[in-house]
Amino acid sequence: MNRKRGELYRDAEQGKIAGVCAGIADYFGWETWLVRILVVSGVLFGMPFLILGYVAAWFILDKKPEKTMSGNHEQGESQYARHRQPGKENGDVSNESIKVKARIWQAGEPPKQALYDIRRKFRSLEGKVQAMEQYVTSAEFTVSREINKL
């Protein structure tokens, strides 16, 4: 698993207490439940310094920054977007990332679920391409292009 690791953050959104275990799991690419079990079993089996380490990590680690969408998508909306079918915006899955896990302790989706999500993503993208093709081949696009040439 040659994955480039980012920074270590607390993931308070995914965490139960402070998000330390969720942040560690995200950093190493593991499932959150596995890190929680390791920490709890470590404390129960005679490693109470893990409690001090958890509290220290709670205060030392920064919260995970929230992902924001780029301004290009919101500001530079193309003309064909106005002609899309209603209700497409609610189920937009084209920007989702799909991680497939190879082993049970790794973070991600089982292969069967990932295949389902990829199929759903391609259907969404195909709908967008069809809407774009429909607009580009319409008379309205031709008239708009001729007006812009003036």
TrEMBL record:
A Pfam short name: PspC
Highest rank taxon of the organism: Bacteria
Transmembrane stretches, start-end: 33-61
Domain Phage shock protein PspC N-terminal positions: 7-63
GO CC terms in record: plasma membrane
Location (main, coarse): membrane
UniProt-annotated location(s): Cell membrane
UniProt region (Disordered), positions on chain: 68-94
Membrane topology: Single-pass membrane protein
Entry keywords, A to Z: Cell membrane, Membrane, Transmembrane, Transmembrane helix
InterPro entries, A to Z: Phageshock_PspC (IPR014320), Phageshock_PspC_N (IPR007168), PspC (IPR052027)
Cited NCBIfam families: phageshock_pspC
Name of the protein in its database record: Phage shock protein C, PspC
Species of origin: Colwellia psychrerythraea
Organism taxonomic ancestry: Bacteria, Pseudomonadati, Pseudomonadota, Gammaproteobacteria, Alteromonadales
